[in-house]
Amino acid sequence: MTSVELTEVSRWYGNVVAVNDVTLTVGPGLTGLLGPNGAGKTTVLHLMAGLLAPSQGKVTVGDQSAWRNPEMYRQLGLVTERESVPGFLTAREFVLASAKLHKLPDPEAATRRALGIVEMEAAQDREISTYSKGMRQRTRVAAALVHDPKVLLLDEPFNGMDPRQRMHMMDLLHRMADEGRTILFSSHILEEVEQLSGTVQVIVSGRLAASGDYRHIRRLMTNRPHVFTISSSDDRRLATVLIGQESVSGVSMTDGSLQVHASDYGTFTRALAKLARTSDIRLTSILPADESLEKVFSYLVAT
Amino acid sequence: MNTTVMALTTRALLGRRRILLLLPMPLVLIGLTLIGVTSGSGSDGWGPLVFGGLGLAVVLPLTALIVGSSVLGLEIDDGTITHLLTKPLPRSEIVLSKLCVAWLVTTVAVGVPLAISALIAGSPALAAGLVAGALLGSLAYTALFLALSLITKRPVAVGLVYIMLWENLLVGFVDGAKVFSVQQHATTFANTIAKSPMLNDTVPVVTAMIIAAVFVAVGTVGATLRLRSFALTGEAT
Questions:
Q1: Which residue of A has its CA nearest to B74?
Q2: pLDDT of residue A299
């Protein structure tokens, strides 16, 4: 189990603070690094990948310091956002070179395996400069994977990919996470993160705004009423019952269903079923209406 | 030394159009020699100008500048350096491999046309001397320019200032400046072997060797230290 840890890390460029006193741990599994553009996601990833010195604090990858420690790269792979690949090489040559630079015992076999994982065998002998954006991205993932790293960092891996390539990449990341690897990917597109992973690290203006499962984060935001969409055998009667509750701050009827704003998540969810039964109303569906990552994110960025 | 780094560097270097910049200078050198030889006038007249003034003073430093600043500098410019940096390689290994390629390419690109010119002029001893001078000069120059490509964003500009202002201007006014001129080291070394009136060496050969060695050491160690704490700037730059 290899995890990446930032301990009270700050990084500034002259007068500009890019990362401000961030402490976080990314463990095995799939984690999304989320934040608006310019929030410092790339800086955080570069700090983790040892390509940037922390101005303050400590960055470790599985107990090893990340900065000025080339040995660390034996257990870490990085896919940068900048699409920089030597276009004069073929995918096979490029991945093979990575394998050799890692001094793997059997670079040829490792190259075949890595290209197989990203399904690039068919085009492996064409020059990279002739590839589409998605193919280049997969080639770079193969090069980052060739040494079978415990930790994989990806900066905006879905940028410029078409939906099919995106699905493929998501599958790939899931598979690798299931193998027990620590995978962190950054994104500013919420749907991507929501589909891929429940665990997020949210960076806003260089600070860690939240960390953990976003549904759990949402529940901790007690100052924001939770919204539920409820349908039942008798919506109107249920509405009158609910509005009498302390934990409910508002009820509205919208086309065939009930929108309930609950100010106290725990009390409301515990009371709802009992109330329905005593009033002899059948609940047919209860859906949290604002427990999406998008809502959580907009709350975090706004506060 | 890492053969993979060397192979990648060589392919990147020889595959780019930039390398075509190296072609005209040797052609001019050989062309001028041919004109000199066919003109019938003694080689004492045009020889120093072609071999010293053009060969070792212009072709050698400019070739070394183009090659030395490219081997690592181009990768930094286009961002592919991250592929190399995220490998468990000692930084000295990267620098030494890059330097080795730059040295060999420069030596071949300068030494071969110089040797051909000297042979056309009918002096095998001069050819041997010039190749030796190119060998030493290439190493010192490329070590210097490789380090420059890590220290400054404009290695070519800074390198040109060194070649133009220090080696070609200041040396004329301040005698001591010679000691720190790679051009003088190369010329001295070449003439120690060639013993030719075409070359005009001014620095004691031992001094030249020592200072050139210091340049190589400072360049290599400096580049390694810089690469060790090489920080990637954001995607905007």
A1: A86
A2: 80
Query: How many whole angstroms separate alpha carbon A274 and alpha carbon A277?
Result: 5
Cα B107 to chain centroid, rounded: 8
Cβ contact (<8 Å) for B80 and A81? no
pLDDT in tens, A185-234: 998 777 788 888 879 999 998 999 989 988 888 777 777 788 899 999 99
Determine which of A3-12, A55-64, A292-301, B49-58 has the lowest per-residue pLDDT on average.
A292-301
Name which of B87, B230, B234 is nearest A42 (Cβ-Cβ).
B234
CB neighbourhood size of A278 (10 A): 9
- Which residues, at least 6 apart from A216, have a Cβ–Cβ distance to it below 8 Å? none
Tell the burial category of B56 from Cβ atoms under 10 Å away from its Cβ (0-12, 13-18, 19+): buried
Domains observed in chain A? 4-215 (3.40.50.300), 221-302 (3.30.70.100)
Taking CB atoms and an 8 Å cutoff, what residues of chain B touch A153?
none
Residues in chain B, how many?
Answer: 237
Q: H or E stretch including B25?
A: helix B24-39
pTM: 0.87
* B237–chain A Cβ distance below 8 A for any pair: no
- Interface A-B, measured as beta-carbon pairs within 8 A, has a size of 73
Is the per-residue pLDDT at B234 higher than 80? Answer: no
Q: Who's near A70: CB < 8 A, 6+ residues apart?
A: B87, B88, B89, B90, B91
**A86/B89 Cβ within 8 A:** no
Q: Hey, is the C-beta of A89 within 8 angstroms of any chain B C-beta?
A: yes
**Searching chain A, which residue's CA lies closest to the CA of residue B92?**
A70
Which helix (DSSP H) or strand (DSSP E) does residue B220 occupy?
Answer: helix B205-228
Q: Is A17 on the interface with B (CB under 8 A)?
A: no
pLDDT of residue A203: 92
The tens digit of pLDDT for each residue in B180-230 reads: 999 999 999 999 999 988 888 889 999 999 999 999 999 999 999 999 998
Cross-chain Cβ contact B235/A42 below 8 Å: yes
DSSP B134-173: HHHHHHHHHHHHHHHHHH-S-HHHHHHHIIIIIIIIIHHH
Sheet holding A226-232, edge to edge: A248-254, A257-262, A226-232, A283-288
Amino acid at position B92, single letter? S
> How many alpha carbons fall within 13 Å on the CB side of residue B45?
8
Q: Where are the domains of chain B?
A: 26-37+45-228
The residue to which tokens 């001591």 are assigned: B176
Nearest Cβ partner for A84 among B4, B82, B88 = B82
User: A69-85: b or e for each residue (b if 16 or more CB lie within 10 Å)?
Assistant: ebebbbbbbbbbbbebb
Q: What is the pLDDT of residues B100-113, one digit of tens each?
A: 999 999 999 999 99
B86 touching A (Cβ < 8 Å): yes
The pLDDT confidence band at residue A303, using thresholds 50, 70 and 90, is low
